Amino acid sequence: MKTIIKRILVVAVMLGTYTSYASETLNVLPTIKLVNEGDHISVTNPFGKVIFSSRIKHSGDITKLFDFSQLSDGIYNVEIGKAFEIESFNFKVEDHKTVLITESQEKIFKPVIRTEDSQLIVSKIALDSNKMYVKLYFEDELIHAETIEGSENIINRVYRLDKTHRGNYSAVIKTNDRVYIKNFSL
Questions:
Q1: Do 91 and 68 touch, CB atoms closer than 8 A?
Q2: Residue of 36, 71, 74 lying closest to 56 (CA atoms)
Q3: Is 18 helix (H, G, I), strand (E, B) or coil?
Q4: 3-state DSSP call for residue 37?
Q5: What is the per-residue pLDDT for 4?
Q6: Which phi-psi region, left, alpha or beta, contains residue 83 (left: φ > 0; alpha: ψ -120 to 50)?
Q7: Burial class of residue 64 in the structure, from the number of CB atoms within 10 Å of its CB (0-12 exposed, 13-18 middle, 19+ buried)
Q8: Of the candidates 15, 30, 36, 172, which lies 20 to 30 Å from 115 by C-alpha distance?
Q9: Tens digits of per-residue pLDDT, 123-155?
Q10: How far apart are the C-alpha atoms of 92 and 135, rounded to whole Å?
Q11: Per-residue pLDDT tens over the stretch 47-88
């Protein structure tokens, strides 16, 4: 009988311990920003000047990889450039403590630009903006320009290039007040 009571007490203590740790974890999860090795990070000060810009060398939680508490008091912007998107958020530094401003979180989708044979394929997830301005250059001479608007969630465009015109091409795409450039050769 004593062993049954001991086992019940051990189980009760363990469940109580797990429950207390679970509530602690839930308070921390929303502020985690995971980054991957190779992503690009840039930090902008309250005056709009980039104070830090680099490739991320280790994957993990951004708050553990970078110590933002050493910055002067103010509101800073962080942009994490990933393969197909840019995550942006603000944080406030006050008395060497950082606080994430959750309302400022934003996700910008980059256009995907690729070449196959003599075709240039441009596509973009249009959840944030359904308009793109595309300019194509051959040897620094403008050969085509257009504005693409989409009513669906994805914007696609395929450009067939003349195989006989060998040389250097550039695609310049403007969307979300940002410019993306892809240089390629045929």
A1: yes
A2: 36
A3: helix
A4: coil
A5: 67
A6: alpha
A7: exposed
A8: 36
A9: 888 777 778 899 999 998 999 999 988 777 888
A10: 39
A11: 889 988 889 888 888 777 787 888 888 999 999 988 888 888
